[in-house]
Amino acid sequence: MRFRTAAAAAGLLVLLPGLAAAQGYQLRLTGGIQGVSFRGYSADSIPVDSVVTASNGSLETPTGYAVTCTSGMPYCNYWVPGPIQTTSPAVAQAALTMWGLGLPGLRVQVNGYATTDFSDAASWPGTSPNFQLIEGYAEYAAPAWTIVAGRKLIAGRLGAYGFDGGQLTGRLASAGLQLSGYLGVGLAQGSNLYVSSSEVSPQGEYQPAQSPLVAGLLGSWNSPHAEVAAEYRREVDQTSDYFGSERVAASATVRPYGAWSLVGGAIYDMASANWGSADAALRFATPKLGVVAGYRRYAPFYELWTVWGAFSPVPYNAWYGSLSYQTTKRLQLRVRGESYKFEDADVSTPLVTIEDAGWRVSGGGTYQISNAWQAQLGYQNEFGVGAASSGWDGSVTFAPNSQYSIMVYGNSLSRPLEYRWDQSVVLVYGMQASVVARDNLTFAFTLARYDEDRQRPDAASFEWDQLRFGAKAVLTFSSADRLPLPKAITNRPAGY
């Protein structure tokens, strides 16, 4: 990890002289810090002989905490409120693009960030490792083809994916065709790190010793009334030469006429011989009215090397619809509903009735009070397998111009849990503000209060309140800032 970090830092230093010599560049620097206070649970135990029976028949400690006892074990386990901890995670990101490097069509892009936590009392997620390279590649583009070498992110129906290697893309613009192939060392799913990194997976001996080799193809065809795309991706374990995954996906958009469109697609997992996620929707959109009716199927995906596939995750199928209507020039209303059902799990539970279906509904509106003021209000309700939730959200925004804006907001969430002995109620209220100090400098600030109440019949019904604040600055440099303005042309009438 130290070698990779040093190599990435050295690469950035090598690019700095090119920044000065490049005819065109854009550098975006972002820095942010948060302050968070929170509290969790601490585990404890008590001898079986010290356990008491409450009036409702439950087992508790003498101080009123519910306990869990295992037959034949001398101790029972329980949870008590942990200490309040405060942490201050921070991040700094740099995104650099350079062109005009002496070869027409050549472009270099680097995007990475550094993180740290200014408090040793608590470890905030995402702050390790301290440096991560998101992208870093050189690209040469010609009218009919493009070649890329370095760390690259690709996005498609199979999801966003990063790899270290090369990509070649060919185009036939007259026919609307494009075909791209890539090959390299793949990164972990949903991460900028290698699969072998300890920060990615704590699965120990089940974790691959090396990141997989990845190869893929992407193809697309575009026309004024239709778009079709297909994607193929294969991962191979470098140690065992076994497949880590092999999937293919296809999607299409058809616009027959006017405001109507039909979109859809599906994924097929070739390695496990199972269908993956899929969706289809019919859309109607005008400046005042938007209607969507659709179907979607969600199936979790795991590489073959992980242990999660052994649990046979069950997909669900859902039907949904949404409607948005601009009732007046200032008021827009919207509503959405969905009903879903899990597929058969092929298990028997004769003594327990398990829910396998649920629904979601939401609605709201946005009112433009004036050119500077806007108000929004929404409500959502959900009933599903194992839990339910309901709540509202609202905000008022004041933005007199493009230089300043401030928003105050609040929302609530109530979550009764079927398989747990408590119900969580959360109230959140706070503010967000942004200021454009100069053309290339922007500041943003956030402040939020979380009031969480765990409603339980024992002594563990304490509040999980916390306060969060954040500050961010964005600074942009561009070659346009230093290029001289073209000479003005003055047209004077005859005689002047």
Describe how the helices and strands are arranged.
Layout: H1 2-21, E1 24-38, E2 41-47, E3 52-53, E4 59-60, E5 67-69, E6 75-81, E7 85-87, E8 89-99, E9 106-117, E10 131-141, E11 145-154, E12 161-172, E13 177-186, E14 213-223, E15 226-236, E16 243-254, E17 260-269, E18 274-285, E19 289-298, E20 316-326, E21 331-342, E22 357-368, E23 373-383, E24 388-398, E25 404-416, E26 423-438, E27 441-455, E28 466-478
Antiparallel strand pairs: 1-7, 1-8, 1-28, 2-6, 3-4, 5-6, 8-9, 9-10, 10-11, 11-12, 12-13, 13-14, 14-15, 15-16, 16-17, 17-18, 18-19, 19-20, 20-21, 21-22, 22-23, 23-24, 24-25, 25-26, 26-27, 27-28
What does this entry look like structurally?
There is one protein chain. The protein is built from one helix and 28 strands. The chain has one helix at residues 2-21; strands spanning 24-38, 41-47, 52-53, 59-60, 67-69, 75-81, 85-87, 89-99, 106-117, 131-141, 145-154, 161-172, 177-186, 213-223, 226-236, 243-254, 260-269, 274-285, 289-298, 316-326, 331-342, 357-368, 373-383, 388-398, 404-416, 423-438, 441-455, 466-478. The strands form three sheets. The chain has a 22-stranded antiparallel β-barrel. The longest helix has 20 residues, at 2-21. The radius of gyration is 28 Å and the shape is globular. Mean pLDDT is 87; it is low at 1-16 and 488-496.
